[in-house]
Recover the amino acids of this structure.
């Protein structure tokens, strides 16, 4: 055993430094994990957003949301409008000025929609996983 302040033999110093380095790398590698660690898949959380009908158009367009999201459709025009999915997956019914209706996006894919009264008014919602 060496006394405090006495020099360490060069061979022992190298082994001590090597051992400390190896231990340090083990700690770092363990903290970082490895590629074989299971990681949860990244999924977008459902959310609530709005589509506004104004000046005989739907906005914002196009709209992209994750599956399960709720969209509030609000008519700001004086004219009555609808937001009706081309595939009939949703229909707000007739909305007068200031009226709103919620729709829930339950299927992935692209949903084209229109106003049943004014068929030139169209929009698209892209529903992601």
């Amino acid at each position: 055993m060496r006394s405090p302040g006495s020099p360490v033999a060069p061979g022992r110093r190298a082994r001590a430094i090597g051992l400390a380095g190896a231990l340090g790398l083990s700690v770092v590698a363990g903290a970082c994990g490895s590629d074989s660690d299971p990681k949860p898949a990244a999924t977008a959380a459902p959310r609530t957003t709005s589509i506004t009908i104004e000046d005989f158009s739907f906005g914002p367009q196009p709209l992209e949301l994750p599956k399960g999201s709720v969209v509030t459709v609000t008519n700001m025009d004086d004219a009555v409008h609808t937001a009706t999915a081309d595939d009939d997956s949703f229909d707000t019914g007739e909305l007068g000025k200031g009226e709103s209706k919620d729709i829930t996006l339950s299927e992935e894919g692209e949903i084209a929609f229109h106003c049943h009264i004014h068929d030139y008014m169209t929009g698209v919602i892209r529903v992601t996983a």
Q: What stands out?
A: The longest strand covers residues 48-54. Residues 10-32 form the longest helix (23 residues). The domain at 48-128 is CATH 2.60.40.420 (Immunoglobulin-like).
